[in-house]
Amino acid sequence: MTRQDMIFQPGAVLHEAVIGGLRANGTNFSAWCRENGVIETVARQATFGQSRGENGQDILARLIEAAGPDFVRQVYERRLLDHADQIRAAQRKRGAA
After folding, report:
1. Where on the tree of life does the source sit, at the highest rank (predicted)?
2. Any idea what DSSP says for residue 3?
3. 13 partner at 20 to 30 Å CA-CA among 21, 38, 50, 81?
4. Residue 13 belongs to what domain range?
């Protein structure tokens, strides 16, 4: 996945999707960082959007590729849709009160 293809908003949802994808592929965040010479803190900052420079974007693209872009997209999309449903339900409940 190239930086131009990025459709994800960095944050907890993206971070968890990447973690899940790495685990599904038989590795984990720490191991991926170690094997790729990336400091874990820097990689975490990239997934959470705290490192948005060229290096952070490159690390994020590599993480998504390693986790499986389709897997990450599906998990990310599902989590966002679930969150939107929760917001709508809370708004309906608030309106009924």
Report:
1. Bacteria
2. G
3. 38
4. 9-96
